[in-house]
Amino acid sequence: MNHFTHCLKVRYPEVDQMGVVYHGNYIPWLEIGRSTTITNFGLTYRELEESGVLVVVTNLNVDYKIPARYDDTILVVTKLSNLEGIRISFHYEVYRLSTEIQQGSKLMSDEELQKTLKDSTLLITAETEHVCMNRDNKIIRLKRENPEVFSKFQAIHKTSQGYTE
User: Fold this and answer.
1) Cα(95)–Cα(98) distance, rounded to whole angstroms?
2) Strand partners for 79
3) Between the N and C ends of the chain, which has fewer C-beta atoms within 10 Å?
């Protein structure tokens, strides 16, 4: 199976006076994970919007386990977990790494991810649910309204589930 990952450093503006990441600052990390995941398949939010497809968050669930701290090296692992009907769901795991790796996005194999996560700490798990809408704010069935974009989401979903073309 392949895993979509994004590595970043906790920046000073993301923490409070105790050096702990403010709970709302995890949400942009999820957005980074999601947007870099779809970008890996040649699709950007700008292109989605230009084609008339808006991907709207309808639900967000975060399970906070241990706080991130200033200057931690963070790895966001993103998986497209559901692609049915009008709903698209993503699952996230955010880790504090025990070793430095290059910042940015990367598609990792199971083996590479396990090696990277050795001695790491799981900080949060999260889920987001989305629907696709048109510019008139009407929910659309992506498979019918924009089959080309839907096929890219299918490829992401298959890769997230361990299938290869």
Assistant:
1) 9
2) 91
3) C
- Show me where the domains of the chain are located: 2-161
What is the C-alpha to C-alpha distance for residues 136 and 165, in angstroms, rounded to an integer? 35
Contacts of 117 (CB under 8 A, 6+ apart): 75, 95, 97
Residue reference for tokens 């692992």: 77
Domain 2-161 has CATH 3.10.129.10: yes
Give me the sign of the Cα torsion angle 42, 44, 125, 82.
Answer: negative
37 CA to centre of own chain: 6
pLDDT tens-digit map of 117-132: 999 999 999 999 999 9
pTM for this structure?
A: 0.92
Please name every residue paired with 83 in a beta bridge, in sequence order, or none if there are none: 88
* Residue 98, SS3 per DSSP: coil
Q: Which residues sit opposite 55 in a β-bridge?
A: 132
CB 100, CB 165: distance < 8 Å = no
Q: Which token pair is 65? A: 């386990």
Which residue in this structure is represented by tokens 């399970």? 63
Closest by CA to 52, choosing from 161, 138, 117, 120, is: 138
* Averaged pLDDT, 6-23: 95
